[in-house]
């Protein structure tokens, strides 16, 4: 039996990103079925909202089938609304530095702002980000690979002009 997924919007959206990254998903009906297989029952309306918030789009895969893709939050523009847009804004305003080490990124913020940035990262549902832990002015972000950590770190530093 699969690991239970918490019944939250953030957990559901993280699972959607994971499923779409793991296999081709051509329709909302097939995505709903995949979610049900892991214990997440969702209405079509909720799934539509989730896909919109995640900025999901369809493109042709190598087999010529249109499948869902989710852009990384680091690929989204500052003009985007919602959680990814909020992440962009907070990253630009609160971040003072970032360093990657293996599959981890240590983010430095202005004093007292780490929780806010960590929450924005969690809500943005960034592909490859497994989670984060925040202190007062430091956020530890755990990613699924060294490459993802390096890319996230570089993108964040470019947003603060470093």
TrEMBL record:
**Keyword Iron listed:** no
Instruction: Print the keywords alphabetically.
Output: Amino-acid biosynthesis, Arginine biosynthesis, Cytoplasm, DNA-binding, Repressor, Transcription, Transcription regulation
**Where's it mainly located?**
cytoplasm
* Positions of the Arginine repressor C-terminal domain: 93-156
- Domain Arginine repressor DNA-binding spans what residues? 8-72
Protein role? Regulates arginine biosynthesis genes.
Q: Which PANTHER family does this one have?
A: ARGININE REPRESSOR
Report what the protein is called.
Answer: Arginine repressor
Its taxonomic path starts at: Bacteria, Bacillati, Actinomycetota, Actinomycetes, Actinomycetales
